[in-house]
Here is the input.
Amino acid sequence: MLRRSRKPVVLAANKVDDQRTEAEAASMWNLGLGQPWPVSAIHGRGTGDLLDAIVEVLPQTSAVAEEPVGGPRRVAIVGKPNVGKSSLLNRLVGAQRSVVSDISGTTVDPVDELVEVGGEVYRFIDTAGLRKRVKEASGHEYYASLRTATAIERAEVCVAVIDASEEVSEQDLRILSMVEDAGRALVIAFNKWDLTDEERRRYLDREIERDLVQFQWADHVNISALTGRNVVKLRAAIDTALEGWETRVSTGKLNAFLGRLVAAHPHPLRGGKQPRILFGTQAQAGPPTFVLFTTGDLDAGYVRFVERRLREDFGFRGTPVQVEVRPRAKRS
Here is the structure.
């Protein structure tokens, strides 16, 4: 099969832990796949030479096309295992595109699908459920986690699916933080709404107030992928998040806002000194990133206050807002 593929083959002879077993590795010449490279995966022996051999046969240009610029908006469906991500994609597509099972971990590789929702075409990416942090995962879970992180990076907006019939977990919060840290727009979909009763919904409201307070900027949609309840409402939430994600504020408007803010709420005194915001600019959109040039370091609480007021004045619904502080260099 390797010969028929007509692809370069690098043959690694593993478990060669010392020079005595190198002679045994030479017997692999009989396979007809070229030079065997003796290595020891457990000790790292010979891996440098193996990597050099791999680099030697790599093509100068990748055969995989880069992500095209433009086209349908890219939406990643993320969440922990068995919350209904694949069911949601299948509901959107109207066909059995992803395998659905009660056994968690059914989806391993991200699945792309062009989907029309409310007359608009989106590229949806169904991802593997994340059980653990990437560095804590092992085996296929580790690589599934890496692929999911890559899918989040590729996306413009993420739909984070949470099981409404269960308590909001630490893993749910970790996934939301992954999306925020990646700077992607966010929509939170509470799935399995058909399995909740009035009591569970009251508890869920309390959990949202208590645990999701740092994600108040993201829209929530209560859905049922099984019955199709409110799935079509995802389009409005996705469009709102993308609009906020791409919002730009002119430098003039931004500095007029900062002037009013500082006049009404100056930074507290620290050690007899009061840092001031000299001026600011929006460095980029997607996500909105602002740079504040100041006379000194600003307290983290004051930076959060500025971010909150930016949201109140300019919107930014459904997107993280990043504020960077650049203190003026001290004169020597």
In short: Residues 188 and 325 are 29 Å apart (CA to CA). Confidence is low (pLDDT under 50) at residues 95-109. The two ends are 69 Å apart (CA to CA). The chain has three domains: 2-57, 73-245, 251-327.
